[in-house]
Each structure stands twice: as C-alpha cells, then as structure tokens.
Amino acid sequence: MDKKFKRTLITSALPYANGPVHIGHLAGVYVPADIYARYLRLKGEEVMFVGGSDEHGVPITIKAKKEGVTPQDIVDRYHNIIKDSFAELGISFDVYGRTTSETHRKTASDFFRTLYDKGEFVEKTSMQLYDEEAGEFLADRYVTGTCPHCGKDGAYGDQCEACGTSLNATDLINPKSTLSGSVPVLRETSHWYLPLDKWEPTLRKWILEDHKEWRPNVYGQCKSWLDMGLQPRAVSRDLKWGIPVPVEGAEGKVLYVWFDAPIGYISNTIDADPEGWEKWWKDPETRMLHFIGKDNIVFHCIVFPAMLMAHGGYNLPDNVPANEFLNLEDDKISTSRNWAVWLHEYLRELPGKQDVLRYVLTANAPEAKDNNFTWKDFQARNNNELVAILGNFVNRAMVLVHKYYGGVVPVAGEYTDADKAVVEEVQASVAALSDNLDHFKFREGLKDAMNIARIGNKYLADSEPWKLIKTDPERTATILNVALQICANLAVVFEPFTPFMSAKLASQLRLSSLNWDMAGRFDLVSDGMEIGKPELLFEKVEDSVVEAQVRKLQEAKEKNLLDQWKPAEVKAEVDFPTFEKMDIRVGKVLECEKVPKADKLLKFKIDDGMGGRTIVSGIAKYYNPEDLVGKEVCFIANFAPRKLKGVVSQGMILSAENPDGSLVVIGPTGEVRPGSCVG
Questions:
Q1: Does the N-terminal or the C-terminal CB of the chain have fewer CB atoms within 10 Å?
Q2: Could you tell me if 427 and 420 are in contact, meaning their C-beta atoms sit under 8 angstroms apart?
C-alpha cells in the first residue's frame, strides 16, 4: 500500500550551463516533472518544485577558454537562456536557482565539511598529469593523445570518441595538454574520496528490497552497479573553477562537480523557503522525487543517497522516475553535432506553440525505452489530435451554444441513458488518468485525457443537435449543456499537460479556478451563464513549417560533416612512368540518359575527338541526365571495356567525392577540344 505523505519535494536534474536545453532534456526530465507538479497542485497538495543550473565543471572552462571569456560569462549567458526558456514553456518551478549562488557555495561547503569532520572521507594520493607550462594539473578533457585501444589520434583523457572506450588520461599514448600543447608530466596529488563501498550493504537493502516498485530501467541499472561492487569516488579535483575545498592546505582544489551539483537541490530549496527548508528535506512526512534522465540514475539512486546517509538527518528519495533517451529524426541527439531542437529557438520560430511541444513530447515520452521525435509526427499529432479531436470538439460545442442560445449556457433537462453513459465514460477516463499520473505513466495519462475529447466528439456526432434543434429544442439544450461540461472537464484534465490551452479554455467557460476535484463533474458550467466567444485552441501546422525545420537539421548535419571532414590518407607512392600509363582525356557530353533498371547508372555518349564512345557512370543519384549534356568532362580513355547492366562502357568519367558522399563530375574550367590529354 502506498504511504501517504504530507508534502512532496520534486527535483529535476540540473541542466549543465554550457549550452541551451533541447527536446531530449525536456522529454526526459522537465515536462514529466512539471506535469506531476501541476497535477499535485491541482489536487491541493503541498508541493515544492526545485530546479536550477549546474554551473561548475571542466566543460564550462573549456568553452570559456575557446571563446576567450571567463567561466562566469559562460554560465551567466546560458543560465539566463535556460531559465527564460523554461518559464516561457510553462515549466512551473517554485525556484530555479544556480550553483554559483552564495547560498549554494555555503551549503555545499558546509555539507563537505560535515562529512570531513565526521571522518566520512578517505584521502588518497595518486599520480596525475600536470602541465608545467600552464602550471596546473590537467582535467581529463584537457589531455588528448592516441587511443591505446583503436590507435586513433585526438582521443580525450576520459574517452575515445572514435571507438567509444572509456579511458584514464594516463592511458593515452603521446599525451598532450590542450592548454599549452606541451607534453604533460606525472605529478603526485591528493584528493578526498567518498567510500561508496562502505554504504553498499545499506544501499542494497534500501533499493533492492525496499523499492521494488521503481521503474525496471532504474531498478535494473542500480542492481547492475551494486552487483559489480561499489568503489570509492573522488569528491575533489585540481581545478580553478568551482567551490573551493573548505579544508586547510587544499589550495587549488575544488569540489568535484558531481558532488557539488546535487547539493544544489538543497541550496535552491533554501533560497525558496529560507525559514522552512528543513521540513522539505528532513521531515519524514515529506516525499522526495527525483526526475532525471537515465544517464543520471547512478548519481541519484546510489551516489547522492550515500552522501545523504553519510551526512545524516536527510530524507532519501522515495522514487526516481527516470526516463530513457529521446532520439531526433532516427538519430541520437548530439549537442556537439548540433543535431537537436533547441528550446529557445523553437519558442522563437514557432511562437505560441508551447502546448504543442509539451503534448508531442509527452505522447512520445521515452518512459520505458528510447523513443523518437520527428517533425512529421509533430505535425501529425498537432493536426490530427490537437486540432481535429480536442480543438474541433470544443469549437463545435461553443459555436452551437452561441448560434442557438446567444452564448448563454442552456438549462439541462433530465439525462437520457445516452447522457448517463457519456458521464460514466468521462468519469472512467478521469479515474484512469488519475491512476496513471499517480504512477508516473504520463503517456498513458495523456491518452486518457484525449479520450475525453473523443467521447465528446462522438457524443455530438451521435446526438446531432444541429438537426434536433428544429424538432426538440429542450433535448438540444441538454445535449449542449453536457457538451459544455465535457469542455470544462477538458480544461481541468489537460492543465498538467497543456497549461496555456487550459487557461484559455477555462477563461472562455468563465471558470475562475481549476482543481482536480472538478474532474468528472457535470455541474462545472452554470446554467444561464454567458460564456466567452469561441476561439480556436490550436491551429494547423503547415507543411512549410515542418520543411523549414527539417531543412535546418539537414543544414546542421552538412555543416558538421564539413567541419569534421579530413582528406583521405594519400595512397602509396607511384613513379612517373606508372602515372603516364593512365590516359586521361577531355570529352564533351553529346547524350546522357538513365540506364534502365539501374538506379545509380547514367549512360553517356561522349565526343572524344576520335569518333565517339559510350561510358557508363554511377552518378545518377547526383545529376539529372539533361543537365550534363554539352558539358566537358575528364575521362580515362584506356580502361578495358566492361559491360554494366547490358551496356558496354568504354572508360571511366572522373568525379570527386564531397564530405557528404555526393559526387561532382570533374572537367576543365575553360574550353578544351575533345580528345585533349590531361597530364
């Protein structure tokens, strides 16, 4: 049986402030967290929804160095972009803080000092790479070299991006510092470690025995880590950017960002409720929930709880409803490749469509496995569901009330069996929706909410009030009263999912406030009350909008290919006599056509200055045949003839390959007589 709590603290993973947030972050963390927070508030429960920017760590220093600015400049810029974007999307944080705040610095320092004074850390000395020119120890990302596994150059000190292997900086062959370009040396350094192995038996019981209700992906990942055996984890590192380790003799050392960041949940709560923050963190009657992506499961289920256990006095999370990853157009979202839909850009390019994004991301939420976002699906869900089902029903009901009753809510007569059946269907959907939201099944809950709109559409279609008004106005009044009550129910049940639409609909129906107890009731809109003029809740997304977004992604992919492109390695040397054996000439294209039953092949008639020849070339994907007629091309004249799809080819047309794999025919830049030799 689920335990009842007095209040709920909801935390959402702290986005890293070295870039904006994208739809992967939203689908994985922030939209589901907001749905749940809004749902609890509608139920009248006491809720604190905490968020904030994670502003320390090496990636921020790297970005700052690259741009020639300070780390503070970087985090100020992105913190504001992220905070403003969340607010515009309707993510209803009670506080959105940051880990560079004075409150956080003090909270994190005090937390570390408490553990230090209790003897909860182990101090270890190890050898790390040191840049003598820069005068500092090198974080893993500040070291590059040759991967010992695949032999590729340019591997980072923590991972080779070519083969994906995790590394230690000391594993690299021929390591170099990215700060100065010099060869680093090994130097001794000391750090403090949290002995996770000490807390393994407690964590094992707490997770594997006491929290079997957690999502399978969360429970399974935790079990895997526990079964492998936990190891001590460093809580400090040599770095200039971060919260200084509050221990004498620790100059040049800061709190490791993984240790510092989750304490941000505590410090942000302190900022939100300076006098009463402890009830949110230390009262056993408070339930704590962490909304995160799957890459943060270990930190929130094992590492942070171990920190809280070591400190003492803090609640542990009751649940961690982590999501899997969202892909984009069948490809993994990548910030480095700019393969993403950035929230702040979406808000500018598709103004007024916050609810559409929230709806689509919930409908495609990667709750149990990775899922996929496509712009075509975005368009289809908007046009076929939000416009054609939800928007259509509400608009029809309100237009009919204005048409037949001057915008005044008609008085309902006695309900027929059909009316009673509709009431029961709506109430059943509300019950299913509540149960799904209670158990963090937001995708299923959204289906339940939309089902109420489907019920309304079918009810109007079956009762046909536009026909009935001529013969039975009293029955028509009841039907349209019921329809308006369904509209009011939609304003309530959609508030967690699409709050902007919900507020608009509530305003049209003159509902002064919304609460969850209203859901399933059919007395929400008062008889004789004048409702507002019907306004469309959603509008169609045109093909041109989708095409522009797909084109934008394609351009990002092409730019990324160009940025990463390197020429192929030069082939083995050949001597001049060998080269002279190759007879390269210029020819003029007289005719060009596709080869039947061969998608890639074009057949050329070439004026080669020697009576002409036929050449078959595999470039049909990149050219229209008619565009090549009259062009001068280079071809190899002394290739032995060979048959391709029944056509004898007497040579090879030369082409160059672009980074994206496309081919461009090679030819002279000025006019050259057919048959002229190249060399």
A1: N
A2: no
H or E, element range at 361: helix 354-363
- What integer pLDDT is reported at residue 447 of this predicted model? 98
Task: Provide the Cα torsion 265, 268, 273, 277; round to 10°.
Answer: 30
Reported as type and span, the H/E element at residue 588 is: strand 584-594
What is 201-244 written as a DSSP string? HHHHIIIIIT-TTS-HHHHHHHHHHHHH----EE-EEE-SSSPB
* Location of structure tokens 């709506």: 426
Ranges of beta strands (E only) in 91-178 are 95-98, 122-131, 136-137, 143-146, 155-156, 173-177
The three-class DSSP label of residue 9 is strand
Q: Contact 145/168 with Cβ under 8 angstroms?
A: no
653 contact partners, CB below 8 Å, separation of at least 6: 604, 615, 617, 619, 633, 634, 635, 665
117 CB neighbour count, 10 Å cutoff: 10
- How many whole angstroms separate alpha carbon 638 and alpha carbon 176? 49
How many other CB atoms are there within 10 angstroms of residue 76's CB atom?
Answer: 17
| CA count, 13 A, side-chain hemisphere, 107 | 23
Question: Alpha carbon 377 to chain centroid distance?
Answer: 16
CB atoms within 10 A of CB 381: 17
Rounded Cα distance between 123 and 109, Å, is 17
Closest CA to 12 of 273, 314, 300, 241: 300
263: which residues sit within 8 A by CB, 6+ positions away?
A: 104, 107, 108, 111, 307
pLDDT under 70: residue ranges of the chain:
1-2
Does the pTM surpass 0.70? The reply is yes
Residue closest to 583 by CA, chosen among 617, 610, 619: 610
Nearest Cα to Cα of residue 258 among 58, 21, 20:
58
C-beta separation of 334 from 561 below 8 A? no
Residue 388: CB atoms within 10 Å: 15
Spacing of C-alpha 481 from chain mean position: 42
Q: What is the pLDDT of residues 336-356, one digit of tens each?
A: 788 999 999 999 999 999 999
Torsion-angle region of 91 (φ positive above 0: left; ψ -120 to 50: alpha; else: beta): beta
Give yes or no for a contact between 603 and 593, defined as CB atoms under 8 angstroms apart: yes
pLDDT at 2: 66
Residue whose C-alpha is closest to residue 615's, from 662, 588, 649: 649
Helix 102-117 with 263-272: angle, nearest 10 deg: 130
Other CB atoms within 10 Å distance of the CB of residue 367: 21
